[in-house]
């Protein structure tokens, strides 16, 4: 007969060996997950954007003042804030002149042949 799935008539009980003392005694070990954490709330201090500070500020006026200062410090009076980033004219000229220089140097070592000087033998026949 097999021993599988047979009832136990003598169940295991805690004895007097090491670690087998009174099981009802309170353990002195505890997990860090059992400890209380995040028990204090932080509140905004003065100067950290409290509700009262935002309530008393005029954001539209501050924005207009900053835009006005920016336009005054800018050396180009025709520049507006909505025009976006501008390119320097030297960069644009450099990009435009490069193809001309490349075309000029493309056949610099070849002899110049004009259209009228070409001798084509196929026309003579």
TrEMBL record:
GO MF: RNA binding
Pfam families in alphabetical order: Cwf_Cwc_15
Organism of derivation: Cuerna arida
Extent of Acidic residues compositional bias: 107-125
Transmembrane segments: none
Protein name from the UniProt record: Spliceosome-associated protein CWC15 homolog
Listed Basic and acidic residues bias regions: 51-70
Assigned keywords, A-Z: mRNA processing, mRNA splicing
Residue ranges, annotated region (Disordered): 1-125
GO BP: mRNA cis splicing, via spliceosome
GO cellular component annotations of the record: catalytic step 2 spliceosome
Polar residues composition bias: residue spans: 72-88
Family: Belongs to the CWC15 family.
